[in-house]
Structures are given as structure tokens and as C-alpha cells.
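Sequence, please.
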């Protein structure tokens, strides 16, 4: 009874659009986070807030930068394959 039911089986019955990759959204959010936390680190440093806050903001910005690189590589691979 479950034969022929692939990943998009319900979409044909519910009218839902087929699932698409969320890599572009993830890239946009990572760039937003990177810019936001770099600016936050700069503001914290200029206001001479505790160095721990500056370090936390820089670490989060670095994580966002790594995510930007990872998503960019995956998008490039997806575009060359398909």
C-alpha cells in the first residue's frame, strides 16, 4: 500500500509546493548575523565594555563567517550539478 510514495507524495494530494533548498535563506541569515555581530563587537569595544562581551560577539561573528563559507560551497556544488 505504500508503493510509489516518494518524498513529495503528499504534495500532490495537498496542493503544497515541492520542498526546496533553504540554503539561500541560510546564507542571508548568516550574512545578517555576521554583519550584526561584527558591528556589535565594534560598539562594545568603542564603549569599553568588558572584554568578555567583545570576545563573545567576535566568536559568534566567526561562526557566522564559517557558515557563510560552508553554505557558499554547497550552493556552488548544487549549481554545478544541476
Amino acid at each position: 500500500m505504500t508503493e510509489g510514495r516518494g518524498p513529495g507524495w503528499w504534495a500532490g494530494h495537498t496542493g503544497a509546493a515541492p520542498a526546496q533548498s533553504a540554503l539561500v535563506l541560510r546564507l542571508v541569515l548568516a550574512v545578517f548575523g555576521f554583519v550584526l555581530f561584527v558591528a556589535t563587537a565594534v560598539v562594545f569595544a568603542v564603549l569599553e565594555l568588558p572584554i568578555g562581551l567583545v570576545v563573545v560577539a567576535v566568536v559568534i561573528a566567526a561562526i557566522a563567517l564559517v557558515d557563510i563559507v560552508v553554505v557558499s560551497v554547497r550552493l556552488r556544488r548544487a549549481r554545478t550539478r544541476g
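The radius of gyration is 20 Å.
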